[in-house]
């Protein structure tokens, strides 16, 4: 007696392999985008810290807000290229400088999907006083 198969199973392994490969690519892209966003946030926070400190140091020696602002801009471009300074404040009584930065992370997919685009925007802010000796 011969058993009839209900469905033809030829090519099933190939279909499963394609499905797994597609899932692997999707997870890889998600990991790449998440890593890019986290690295951008980390670099932006470091840039805000160093820009605020350098600007406070410049303000302490020159008492010029414009020179302090230029020092902060130079430091931001050195540490986080492409970031823009959204806020720059100097407290003339204490010499503290506040710097806020914003930058969009470069991603493969997240920046192209409307509801994920807000996740690619990184912001950082820091306040630093002049160095004490």
Descriptive account of the structure:
With 133 residues, the chain is an alpha+beta fold. It contains 2 helices and 3 strands. A 3-stranded antiparallel β-sheet has the order 1-2-3, covered by helices on one side. The mean pLDDT is 92.
Topology, pairings included?
Elements: H1 12-62, H2 65-79, E1 84-90, E2 97-104, E3 121-128
Antiparallel strand pairs: 1-2, 2-3
Helix pairs in contact: 1-2
**Widest sheet: strand order?**
1-2-3
Shape: rod-shaped
Instruction: Outline the biggest β-sheet.
Output: 3 strands, antiparallel
- Total strands: the figure is 3
Secondary structural class: alpha+beta
Beta-strand content estimate = 15-25%
Low-confidence stretches: none
Could you give a quick summary of the protein structure above?
The chain is an alpha+beta fold and 133 residues long.
What labels describe this entry?
17% strand, 3 strands
